[in-house]
Design goal:
- The structure holds 2 protein chains of 2 kinds.
- By secondary structure, chain A is α+β, with helices and mostly antiparallel strands.
- Chain A has 3 helices and 9 strands; from the N terminus they run E-E-H-E-E-E-E-E-H-E-E-H.
- In chain A, the strands form 3 sheets. In chain A, strands 5-4-3-9 form a 4-stranded antiparallel beta sheet.
- In chain A, strand 1 and strand 2 form a beta hairpin.
- Chain A is globular and about 50 Å long.
- Chain B is mostly beta strands.
- Chain B starts with a strand and ends in a 14-residue tail after the last strand.
- The chains are: A alpha+beta, B mainly beta.
- At the A-B interface, strand 1, helix 1, strand 3, strand 5 and strand 9 of A face strand 1 of B.
- Strand 1 of chain A pairs parallel with strand 1 of chain B.
């Protein structure tokens, strides 16, 4: 496989959860990500729904994945190789080309499709940044 | 044996300023 393949997706790779627990990448469950985000404090898990999958215009050979992210349903598009695995809630590892993922990483994958909801992370918003009316903030102090 | 942090496995999808 090309050297640039991220080795943390290689079957058997050891992953450390925020709780300190060690697990193999192929054994991870949805709960592991959710609990790790809770424990780590600075990170938040977002549900990102795949709304469109296209071949990337800018970078041939890559796939453009269109997501709606989190409660605000903000639109985010990323270009990834078709074999790049994503963790889908309640389903596990999935990619646009499960055969290639299996060949390159040895990781068994479902076929990623529009409508799948993937685990993604973003920075935890510190509370005061949320848009709360001013008076309500004063009462809290 | 290398150990990888859990968050390196999931994409960081924050809305870009243009959203």
């Amino acid at each position: 496989p090309a050297p640039s393949n991220p080795s943390h997706f290689m079957k058997g790779a050891i992953i450390q959860l925020a709780t300190g627990e060690l697990k193999r990448v192929e054994d991870l469950q949805t709960q592991d990500f959710v609990r790790s985000a809770e424990v780590s404090g600075g990170l938040k898990i977002d549900s990102s729904m795949v709304v469109d999958i296209r071949t990337s215009q800018q970078r041939p050979g890559l796939v453009a994945l269109h997501f709606t992210v989190g409660e605000q349903q903000s639109k985010v598009t990323i270009d990834v190789p078709p074999e790049h695995p994503f963790f889908v809630f309640g389903q596990g590892w999935s990619s646009c080309s499960p055969e290639r993922t299996g060949q390159l990483y040895g990781l068994a994958c479902h076929h990623l499709q529009v409508g799948d909801v993937c685990v993604s992370i973003t920075l935890q918003q510190p509370p005061q940044q949320q848009k709360q009316p001013l008076q309500q903030q004063q009462q809290q102090q | 044996v290398p150990v990888f942090p859990w968050h390196s496995l999931v994409p960081f999808l924050a809305p870009t300023q243009s959203d």
